[in-house]
Write a structure and sequence with these properties.
By secondary structure, the chain is α+β, with helices and mostly antiparallel strands. It has helices spanning 2-17, 38-52; strands spanning 62-67, 72-84, 87-97, 105-114, 117-120. The chain has a five-stranded antiparallel β-sheet.
């Protein structure tokens, strides 16, 4: 009986602990005009990590990213710092250029610093 009550709690704990602090992100999720593969997402994630980990991050600072295999490239640019639910957060503007598409795509995400690392707000 006790085992049946603890299983959902244990499952939640395992799932929570298996999530990295800054997992691969796709700011263009749901956009058919910006197809990204796993290597593209890795490049975006690494650029975001480098950007958010800067000790003196200022609005306008940017990190370039690219995937030579797909030809997709872009930037992650720091926006203004903001507060969300008492946390220090940073707006990040993402731009991506995809071969075969005429205009660069852009999306904005807000990242907040938690005790476990940066999370999308």
């Amino acid at each position: 009986m006790l085992r049946n009550r603890l299983f959902p709690l244990l499952l939640l704990l395992v799932v929570s602990l298996s999530q990295p602090a800054l997992a691969q992100i796709n700011p263009f999720r749901g956009s058919r005009d910006t197809p990204l593969n796993a290597a593209d997402l890795t490049a975006i994630t690494e650029a975001t990590n480098r950007l958010l980990d800067r000790p003196q991050l200022a609005a306008g600072d940017a990190e370039n990213w690219s995937n030579p295999q797909s030809g997709v490239n872009g930037t992650a640019t720091a926006g203004k710092p903001v507060q969300r639910q008492g946390m220090a957060c940073r707006v990040v503007l993402y731009r991506a250029t995809v071969p075969g598409h005429n205009t660069p795509r852009s999306r904005t995400l807000t990242w907040c610093k938690t005790k476990n690392g940066w999370k999308v707000a």
